[in-house]
Amino acid sequence: MELVFNYAGTLSLTKQLKPKSIRQINSGDVFIKGGSPGHTVIVVEVAEDKQSGNRYFLLAQSYMPAQQIQVLKNPQNNNLSPWYSVADLVNDVATPEWTFTINDLKTFD
Questions:
Q1: For the whole model, what pTM was predicted?
Q2: To the nearest 10°, the Cα dihedral for 41, 43, 81, 91?
């Protein structure tokens, strides 16, 4: 991980990570906006309602260097926060400081 943190940034990772469908979201996936500044949040947990099939997920972030990781609030749904619902997402995934789109979801190979 130290090697990744030293040589990889959001700009290079945006190009290298594999796009993923929001319906297939899993722990370890990331929402990423490449740039300077860019930003990444990580999916730290996913749960599924067995009856409805809807998936829910938690996001976390940190700044460089990666330390003091924080679970993020869901500013779009205070009743569900900190969880996000895949069924509630049309295009945007808003966090307290950044807004991603569902197309910003990527995964490591």
A1: 0.89
A2: 70
SS3 (DSSP) at 106: strand
Q: Is the pLDDT of residue 100 over 80?
A: yes
Beta bridge partners of residue 100, listed in sequence order: 93
pLDDT at residue 6, rounded to an integer:
67
Q: Which amino acid is at 48?
A: E
Instruction: Confirm if 14 and 32 have CB atoms less than 8 A apart.
Output: yes
Task: For residue 2, give every residue at least 6 positions away whose Cβ sits within 8 Å of its Cβ, in sequence order, or none.
Answer: none
Residue range 7-52, pLDDT digits in tens: 778 888 888 899 999 999 999 999 999 988 889 999 999 999 999 9
Contacts of 35 (CB under 8 A, 6+ apart): 10, 11
Residue 76 in 3-state DSSP? coil
Tokens 């940034």 — which residue?
9
